[in-house]
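Technical annex, item 7. During the second reporting period the consortium partners agreed on a shared format for inverse folding records so that results from different sites could be compared directly. Each record opens with the tokenized structure and is followed by the designed sequence. A conforming record, contributed by the partner at site C, is shown below for reference.
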């Protein structure tokens, strides 16, 4: 398997914070977290970012499988 150590992943917010869009992230919410930038997204942005990320990894898998 490839190294996914720096890829974003889902987790439960351990403390309240603020998304880059300005929305509040409440403790216990399921959020998308980026280890490389140590930033988290609100649930709404998380859904969009997760969809983008999955689309990217699926493209990669598709291209890699062809060569
Ligand atoms: Zn947001």
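Designed sequence (site C submission):
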């Amino acid at each position: 398997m490839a190294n996914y150590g720096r890829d974003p992943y889902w987790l439960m917010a351990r403390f309240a914070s603020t998304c880059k869009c300005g929305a509040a992230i409440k403790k216990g919410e399921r959020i998308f977290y980026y280890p490389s930038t140590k930033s988290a997204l609100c649930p709404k942005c998380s859904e969009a970012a997760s969809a983008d990320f999955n689309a990217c990894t699926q493209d990669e898998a598709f291209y890699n499988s062809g060569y």
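The pocket of zinc ion is lined by residues 19, 21, 23, 41-42, 44-45 (CB under 6 Å). Helices lie at 43-65. All partners now use this format for quarterly exchanges.
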